[in-house]
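Field reference: sequence -> structure
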Amino acid sequence: MSKDKKMVEAITSRDVDFAQWYTDVVKKADLIAYSSIKGCTIFKPAGFAIWENIKAELDKRFKETGVENVYMPVFIPESLLQKEKDHVEGFAPEVAWVTMGGVNNLTERLCVRPTSETVFCDFYKDDIQSYRDLPRVYNQWCSVVRWEKETRPFLRTREFLWQEGHTAHATFEEAENRTKQMLDIYATFLEDFLAIPVVKGIKTEKEKFAGAQSTYTVESLMYDGKALQSATSHNFGDGFAKAFGIQYTDKDNTLKYVYQTSWGMTTRTIGALIMVHGDDNGLKLPPRVAPTQVMVVPILQKKEGVLDKAYELKDRLSKVCRVKVDDTDKSPGWKFSEQEMRGIPLRVEIGPKDIENNQAVLVRRDTNEKITIDLGDIEAKVSKLLETIQNDMYQVAKDYLNTHISDAHNYDEFTDAIENKPGFVRAMWCGNRECEDKIKEETTATSRCIPFGDDTCLSDKCVCCGKPAKKLVYWGKAY
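Structure field:
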């Protein structure tokens, strides 16, 4: 048991040092390894398996709405990147450049893909000729490079994995509908599959994507009270189309510009999973995303029949869940700690006495509750319990979000809430960039979104300047 205790002690408490706790969990749960390339991490099997499940589920949901997958080049000529002024200015500080090919200098610098709007636009200008070619609803799964100064595993790395959708439409209304449709897909996915509650809304002009006409976002709240932008969906209007000359011949035989959207979710969602659900014992994964949903742990496995029974249970449970057997020679206590550290939702303990009594012990990772069940209906019991765990984890996170939203009616209340009440702060805003800048400069909080479906009027005055207010805004410190 001393080894078990040491393993748990290796994790810093969330309430003592949240940043260190996060790093400890990422490493101890064996999700990543640090590479020799500064700012880049190696996805180990446990970490990459989570991304594979995210990718598979999200890809399925995309395709149900008509999305098709494509793949674009990783290199973008500098002249192409320069075509949309706001876009290039937004990404210029983070771009990595290729200046040589082999031993020869390139005639034109190539940037390593920070995002693919310009490449898609260059493709669409030749691919789209007629109204019959619309809409184009494409997505690609790839990696991108952004030369971040400060990095942290999953949350901010110089190379990361993501999906980026890029669509083209005949009308603004079609583009707007697709933009909101994809945002709803992200919100539903985060809540149903990852058990992460979100706030949906629109970004302010200051915070919107470079080159977009409007940016919609889903914001989630981490245990330390900081916000995490979990996915975004952008309506580009016809700005990119005009910059790149993407036109089509309409039914009336006139040339018109297309309207475009872009939307994405990244591997930072794994960071969100860790920070929303994890505890001082390590990772805690919702069953739907967990690579291994159930771990069968044989007790006194050297005794005759124990290991055989464990594998028999695995075969039975494999029909209803993703299941493994821990048949290593470690002590049961060590195995328990290790499976807790890795966040496996449900543990099945089976030993000689259990076999004798035709029973097994189920242990929930989320609550540590132990449940003794009859082996005769283990498949139904486990299947039902996994759904219960999924729903309970979402409700715990939802309750946490709801109790960490403060209201501020004036600037004193606002600054006090930002400093002393971790979470979102709801406050009225006049719509002026100067107030947004002042709030960020003085409190480090940013506008997270103007929420959908929340018409609350806390005051008729801006929380910052006192002038007439126009919008309710969710503010907060963020990753």
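Note: The first strand starts at residue 32 and ends at 34.
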